[in-house]
Each structure stands twice: as C-alpha cells, then as structure tokens.
UniProtKB/TrEMBL annotation:
Its cofactor is Ca(2+). Residues 278-742 form the Glycosyl hydrolase family domain. One of its GO terms (molecular function) is peptide-N4-(N-acetyl-beta-glucosaminyl)asparagine amidase activity. This is Glycoside hydrolase family 92 protein. Keywords: Calcium, Hydrolase. It comes from the Bacteria. One of its GO terms (biological process) is carbohydrate metabolic process. GO terms for cellular component: cytosol.
C-alpha cells in the first residue's frame, strides 16, 4: 500500500484548545518540535509573594490564560501543558504614543505597555497567531521556523512608535531569577545578546539575534538593577540613550520608529543555546528575507506534512480534537541544536550532535506512557534521535544518570521514577533505535542503581521505601518497579540474563506495598508494618505523588495478571474497577493538589493526571472487555472538547493528547517496553497511518456511531483477534485492523 495523498489538515488544528482552566497550552506560533515557541503573555505574576509561593502563578505555566483581557507582550519560549514552568524569554511588545516601560496591571492596562485585546480579534492556527492590541491600535502577527520567530506589527501613523524588548520578563519569574543579561547593538537594524536565568533549569543561558525590517531612529535602555557595591568606570558614558553595549541583571530596551498608517514593522528573532554568532547563523539559514506570508506558509506546510501522517475520517468536532491532539503531541520534545549541529551540554560545554538532532524538554514522568510510544509508530526517526539525546545527556551528566525531566542543558529533577529507561527500552524493543543497545542498557542500569537518588538505596535493600524516608514512598516504589521491568525486557532482548534476573526480581517490589487487609497500596514503615493513618481517597500525606491510593493501587502496568490475583481474582478486580469509575470523590480529597480538579475526574478515576491512564484497559484482563470499550468512549467524549477549556487536565507536553489519539484509533500501549497494544473502542470511522517505511496501517470501525461503542469482533488483515491485543509489528508491517461495532456488549 502506498501513502495517501495530502489533505488540508491544518484547518482542524485549534491551538486555543487547552488555554483555559487546566490545559496549560499556549496559542502562539511554533513548528513541529521547534526550538522557538512564539506566543503571547497575558500577565506578569511573580512566583513568590512576601517570600512565599504564589499559588495563582500556576495558572500561567504557559504564559497565556484564556480568561484574561490583556496582553503584556510576545515571548519566544514556552512549555506546552506543563504543571510547573520556566522560560518566557525575550518579551517583545509594540506600542505607540508616550513611551512606557512598565507592564502596567490587568485592571489598568493603560498604566503600562500592556494592551487590552478581544478573542473576537484573535486568530490562532498551527504556525500562526494574530491579535489586535486595542489600546495602541496595533495588529500583531507571529509565525516561526525551527529556531527563528518572526513578528509583523501593523502600526498606525505615529512619530512615537516603539518596540520594547523586556529582558526582565519571564514565566515563573521572581526577583533574582535573571542572573545576567548582555545586549549589543550591532547597527540600526541588528541587536544580539544573551540572558542567563536561574529557575527550574538552574544554569540556563539563551543567546539571541534580533533583526528589524527598517532602521530604528533611536534606542535606549532602562536598568532596574539594585545599587551595586562596585560598578567599575562605565559611569563615564550615558548608557541610557543610543549606547551600543549594555549589561546588567534587570534591563529593558526600547527602539523608536516613525510609522505611516498601516505600515508593517517586522522582526526576525533567532535563538541559540551556544552563542550570538550561532543565533545569527540560525537566522540567516532559516529566514533569508522579509516575506512574512512566505514564512507563515512554510510553517503551515510543515505542519500539514506532519499532520498527514495520520488521516482520519470522523465527525468535524472529533477531527478538531484529533488534529489538535496531534499538533500538541508534535510540539515537544523541542529541538536543541543549532543549524551547525552545536548545542550546550549538561557539562556547560559546547558539543556537536554527530548524525542526529539533539532534543530537550523531556517531561518523562508524563510522556513515557503514551507520547514516546506514539513516536515509535509515527516518528521513528525522531524517536531514534530522542534516545540518542538522552544518552548524550547521560554521557555529560556529572551524576551519570539518564534524564528525569530535562530542558536547556539542565535536569530539573521533577517528578518521580527514572522513566527514560522505559523510553529507551521501548525504542530498542520496537526496532527504532540505531545506536549501541548494550551501551544504552548500561546507562539504564547505572541510573537504576543510583542509590542516593529518591530512596533507590532503600528500594534495593529492603524492596520498598520506608514511609519515614520519603513523602512519596509508595508511588516511587511502584514506578521503580515498572521501570525495572522495562530494563529487564531490554536485557532479555540482548540476552544479558544476569541483568534480566536481577531486574525482573526488582520489578516485583510493588508487592511489598500491597496491603491485603485493606486491598490497597499503602505506605510501609521501616519496621515492616503499614502506616496506621491511611485514607485511600486522600492525595495528601499518603505516600503518593499527584494521586491517591485508589488510582495508584492499579499502577502495575507490567503485570496485570499478578495484580488481579492479589486483589482476589478477575471478578473482584472488575468490580473494583467499576467502583473506581462510579464512586464519588469529595472535593476535600483533592483540595491540596494543583493538578487535580473536578473537570478531570470520572468517579474516582483521575484522567486529568497521568498515573491512571492505563487503568481503563485493565478490563481486558478480567474477561469483561466490553467495559474497557464503553469507558474508553466515555472518557474520549467527556475529557476532550474542541473548546478553550476542552482539556480536563494539563496536557503535559502531549501525554493527554497521545492518550486521545491512541484511544481514538482503538489501541493503547499499557506497558511501554512491551511490543503489545491493548484494544479498546475506536472513535474514528476510519484512519490511515502513513508510516515512515512507506507502508500504511488502516483502522476501520464498521457500523461506527455514538451508540455503537461496543466491539462485536476485530479482524487483523481478515483474521479474527480474540485476545484483545495486537503487536507493534502488526502496525509497522502495514495492513488493516477492522472493528465491527455494536450497540450491545459482547459478553
């Protein structure tokens, strides 16, 4: 079978989905896996107030909140869908009239450079963003390439038009976050520089080159630095106006223009992790001229090519949900290599990616579950490079560990587990990785034996982590057990049976936190007894990260059969699953967590967070697969909508979106590191996956409808499947998976 002809699929992408409430997505312009994410900011909240964490800042993980009425500017780096944040580098804001360098407030936008805006005058598409800034009557348009953001600002007639470059602005900002800033005005259209920050990434330096389409008539800066004990002899110069070399911690630049009515002032803004010279080289390589429409068309053509890797037939709303999910899945990990192959490593040295693209933004606690397995089907070439990037991270790490949560030559150590081992094992087992698999396994082993990281020493010695030693002892134990199972699978494939035996034994450590008396995973004390104060519904102080025991007690994706046996057999287990999906979880039980809200919950099942994403497929192990089918369709329709508030939880760098796409196609990777996918109930009428190897894999749902959520039978290439699973090779070899749908469960 040959790949299908390209369709116009960009029309179904709505980047505004997830920008309201808990989605934490951004609406601005980026290209697939791009290093630039050029998007609006809608407020300037500080990470702390009076020395304490400011809870409201959580709403601004992506910089933009749909409910807001003002825009403070457009910055070049953003995370998509995260539950913590950083970035927001190099904020640009066009204004006219009297120059104002403070951002003002939401209640009084005219008191600063921010502007009111309306969603009626806002356009968000794949690779393109447009909005009217009402207070200054300026239309802002944004597009991008991989490493360069392009701005186009349409001004009114004015002899006081300005473009502000705020080098203090940022996301999850605080007073001391900017360590140092340097700006060099090369000529009247070109500026270069860098900014170093200390945030989620502790040592992060981003270099830039900024070019204007017309010369500015004057420029200046304002420094907000506190008085230093020593300032050298730079005071000989007036550095406030038209001075070409600026340095400090807290700087804002401004550039003045005369503009005619409707005149467009354009900016090319290139980033580099290495140097100003590389940023300029990136700019010249990726955008040679000033044709904004051409760059926008290129961005959207690039998106369309990627979106066409899966062509689905379904309702219009479902198409919007599907292709926006595919868009969100292809935003990150992000490119972290200049056009010449250079990047800054964890050791803060400059490295060259030899024969691969280096990536960063690995939110692995989220994305190992479905996003990276999704790449092994639709982006195997990039998946290969991502594994190579993880192993480069390992080589540069002073701790000799694979990434936990990496971005910009840093590991921010967020969340639990060492899930890069799952991604690596999955890629090698599915034939995606082209490097040395034994070297990769060695890196996995070294990471899993790092005794002083998050209780690993206790886990190795005792088979569990004592509750006195860790506030997330149970979830860590469960996640390490799964990760160790994935290491064992890789070792088995490579015939390293000593490693297999060691890690398959470790993978059974989850059993040590199972309390047969209560039927739940439960914190265990150092003396071997279970902690007495225990509530399986509570998320606070119970030994779990971002979840409760009701959800985490099912976290044994690697061995459902043993879990079912421990919980009393298939019938009791199915009843327990029924209870999870139908129980009432009072608000008090998630009052202490930012990541869980009512929108993301079905009964007691938390879909708006990741640890339970595989659970709905467990009915396939209980002889009641029709309940998987019905519940999958319920989740798809309830948790994903084509609206700004259409996501029931943080998209988490594409994990929520990857769950949607897998489940819409009718199968899901319950345990990455295995080549097995568990079958559900497809939402699409038809889907064609155009594989990189030139083959196609087709999914069809015969008699598909909103009522026909049950599967009567499944055929793979005409042969009936009776065990509710397919293999990775079934997909990559090409073929057809046919679901025959019905309104009645097949019991």
């Amino acid at each position: 079978m040959v790949a299908s002809a390209q369709q116009n699929l960009v029309q179904y992408v709505k980047p505004i989905i997830g920008t309201s409430k808990m989605g934490h997505t951004y609406p601005g312009a980026t290209v697939p896996f791009g290093a630039v994410q050029l998007s609006p900011e809608t407020d300037t909240l500080s990470y702390e107030v009076n020395g304490k964490y400011n809870g409201d800042v959580y709403k601004y993980c992506a910089g933009y909140k749909y409910e807001d009425k003002t825009i403070t500017g457009f910055s070049h780096t953003h995370f998509s869908g995260t539950g913590h944040s950083d970035l927001g580098d190099f904020l640009i804001m066009p204004t006219q009239g009297k120059l104002q360098l403070n951002p003002g407030t939401a209640s009084n936008p005219k008191g600063g450079y921010r502007s009111a805006f309306s969603h009626a005058n806002e356009v968000a598409e794949a690779g393109y963003y447009k909005v009217k800034l009402d207070d200054d009557n300026i239309t802002a348009e944004l597009t991008s390439t991989t490493r360069v953001g392009m701005h186009q600002y349409t001004f009114p007639k004015s002899d006081q038009s300005h473009i502000i470059l705020d080098l203090m602005a940022g996301i999850y900002n605080y007073e001391e976050k900017t360590v140092w800033t340097y700006v060099r005005v090369v000529n009247d259209t070109l500026i270069t520089g860098y900014r170093q920050t200390n945030g989620w990434a502790r040592t992060r330096t981003v270099y830039f080159a900024m070019s204007f389409s017309k010369p500015f008539k004057s420029y200046g800066r304002k420094s907000y630095d506190a008085k230093q004990a020593y300032r050298g002899f730079w005071g000989k110069f007036n550095q406030e106006q038209n001075f070409p070399e600026i340095a400090g911690k807290k700087l804002k630049m401004f550039f003045d223009f005369d503009t005619q009515e409707g005149e467009k002032v354009k900016i090319k803004f290139a980033l580099s992790p290495v140097s100003q010279e590389n940023a300029l080289e990136n700019m010249r390589a990726e955008i040679s001229g000033w044709d904004f429409e051409k760059v926008k068309a290129q961005a959207q053509a690039t998106w369309n090519k990627e979106l066409n890797k899966i062509q689905v037939t379904t309702s219009n709303d479902n198409k919007i949900n599907f292709y926006t999910a595919l868009y969100h899945a292809y935003i990150n990990p992000t490119t972290y290599t200049d056009v010449n192959g250079e990047y800054k490593g964890l050791d803060q040295g400059v490295h060259k990616a030899d024969g691969f693209t280096n990536y960063t933004t690995f939110s692995l606690w989220d994305t190992y579950r479905a996003l990276h397995p999704f790449f092994n089907i639709t982006q195997p070439g990039r998946s290969n490079d991502m594994v190579k990037s993880m192993l480069a991270h390992y080589d540069q790490s002073s701790l000799h560990m694979l990434p936990i949560w990496s971005h910009y030559a840093n590991d921010n150590w967020c969340m639990s587990g060492y899930h890069s081992v799952s991604v690596i094992s999955d890629a090698i087992i599915k034939g995606t990785y082209t490097g040395d698999p034994n070297k990769a396994l060695d890196a996995c082993i070294a990471t899993a034996k790092h005794r002083d990281y998050e209780g690993i020493g206790y886990y190795i010695d005792k088979g569990y982590i004592p509750a006195e030693k860790s506030g997330i002892s149970v979830s860590n134990n469960l996640e390490y057990s799964y990760d160790d199972w994935s290491i064992a699978q890789l070792a088995k494939k490579l015939n390293r049976m000593d490693v297999y035996n060691e890690f398959i034994k470790r993978s059974n450590n989850w059993k040590n936190n199972y309390d047969s008396a209560s039927g739940f995973m439960r914190p265990k004390l150092a003396d071997g007894t279970f902690k007495k104060e225990f509530d399986p519904k509570d998320t606070e102080g119970q030994g779990f990260i971002e979840g409760n025991s009701w959800n985490y007690s099912f976290f044994v994706p690697q061995d459902p059969a043993s879990l079912i046996e421990m919980m009393g057999g298939k019938k009791k287990f199915a009843t327990r699953l029924d209870t999870l999906f139908t129980m009432h979880l009072p608000d008090e039980f998630f009052a202490h967590t930012e990541d869980i809200t009512r929108e993301g919950i079905i009964g007691g099942y938390v879909h708006g967070n990741e640890p339970a994403h595989h659970i709905v497929y467990f009915y396939n192990w209980t002889d009641q697969p029709w309940k998987t089918q019905a519940q999958v369709r319920h989740i798809l329709n309830m948790q994903y909508k084509p609206t700004a508030d259409g996501l029931g939880g943080n998209d988490d760098c594409g994990q929520m979106s990857a769950w949607y796409m897998f489940s819409s196609l009718g199968f899901y990777p319950v345990a990455p590191g295995s080549d097995i996918y568990s079958l559900g109930s497809p939402l699409v009428n038809n889907a064609v996956i155009n594989l990189e190897n030139g083959k196609t894999f087709t999914v069809e749902a015969i008699k598909q409808s909103d009522k026909n959520v049950y599967v009567e039978k499944v055929l793979l290439n005409g042969k009936e499947i009776t065990d509710h699973k397919i293999k990775h090779a079934d997909i990559t070899n090409g073929g057809k998976l046919s679901f025959y749908m019905s309104s009645k469960p097949k019991k």
